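Quick entry, no commentary yet.
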Amino acid sequence: MNESLRAQIETYLAHLDGLIRRGCQVRDTLTTDPSNRSAIAATRVWQEDCGVTINQLSGGSKAHWLARSFSEAFLKRTTAGLAVAGAAPDEIVTRLLDVLEQAVASLSRMDDGQVISASSQGPPPRRFEFVHNPKLRPVLEQAYTDTRHSFEQGDYGLALRTSCGILEAIVTDALEHKGLSALAASGTLAGKIADWSFETRLAVAERTGLIRGGCARLPAVARTYRDLTDADCESGPKATVSESNARLAGQVLRVVMRDLDPGR
């Protein structure tokens, strides 16, 4: 990679990092106080700045996957899967943050050539370099791609189960890297990490500071995702996984990914 391109990419990455930090701040404020006028105004300015950056990275092409993702972030889906305007402000911010993270992932993979070529191709797989087990990384990258496809196709049960599986895998990897002795010193449970429940792994990771409190947003059905099967998700209202459930699970996964890899 030539120095000019490297400098260009680093400039964009630094700018995207700043946008992501601003976005997290306005989202936190909107979540606790949706009618906060200063936060609403700051959100509008932030969204305009995001739009300018996305337009630059997509080469001004509305057909580019990055530009399409940006536009779709402002829409919500009806029960029939139709796109309509009116998504909640904090949800829009969360979706735009995901678009910015996709841009970061794409830039981080660039070789010689344009920074992000204006094409209709989808984003590259999400990178999991922060995972300590190298054999696990390609599996997680494929699973992350699969869960996005499942969600887009309306298979919310599969999308939720895959997101939760990734979440459990990366948290388990972080716990195992920290080591049982360090976990025991923090007053946590003894025994093999592999024997702990999903809830226990999340609680211990939070208590030891590996992750923050993002998992509090996980819906109840996600916490028992191991018990779900394809038949369960289609059997009736009691076991049905909604679009909102699947979306929340994906959002929590992305929050935990940032916690485990704050430099990303």
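second:
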Amino acid sequence: MSPGAIRLMGTGLRVPGSGLRHIAPLLHKARYEVVPTPSAEDAVLESVPRDVVVTVTASPTKGLEPTLALTERLAAAGYRMVPHLSARQVRDQAHLGEVVGRMTAIGVDDVFVPAGDADPPAGEFSSALDVLEHLTELGSPFPRVGITGYPETHPKIDDDITIQAMWDKQRHATYLVSNLCFDAAVLRRWIARIRRRGVTRPLLVGLAGPVERTKLAAMATKIGVADSARFLAGHSSAFIRLSTPGAYQPERLLDRVGSVLAAPESAVEGLHIFTFNQLSQAEQWRQKLLARYDDSGVTAV
């Protein structure tokens, strides 16, 4: 044993890399979130293996159509797709029925249902729970349904309310996706807290992928001024962390939380990677970590 390792024993400090050794199974189950920009389809086709699930966000200004259309095209190309069905962009029950019909016709079996940022709502649905309840009334057409969790304080909703909302929604859902979080201690405490509160659904941990600052700024431009303003209003600290040199590296966060994510009581089943459409960088990063830490004998495609 090296002198440095001996000095660390008994101190409670984490040996560098110790948490990363736990995360290879989660990297095999990682999925990539993309924004439905004009270049998104080509970026997925060029960089994302067919065994990686792709999720498509929804724009509060452009509505659900770009999300649904990109989902249809990538599903036809062989990807397993998870469209975001933002509740506040669904006009009415008839519109929801049309969306369900389109998605089930192409084999979509998994949807993510956030409330969304459209203000005012496009129609009669104002919360994720409204849509979730109606999907249940329709016979639960999607075997997998995801809902949002907020490790860091939501800019507009108190923490206790967000956790209560998860409790209310989980009976209609099959898994949780945590929103962006850059603080390992906050993430660890949040996972323990929701489990103590009886939120039992499996968790996909939301993680910002590796990003280039100039491309992050370009993405803000591509998604439009209004959407960018809404994003920055609710995620200004995230934008600062991502756009400041050296301020964020996803493997550092994983190193600090890896052992917690691997613990059975945490019920973490994978990673939800916010790519900001920087898919080549995300996949290169994932493959690099798998090459270094995966000892399962499974090779990523």
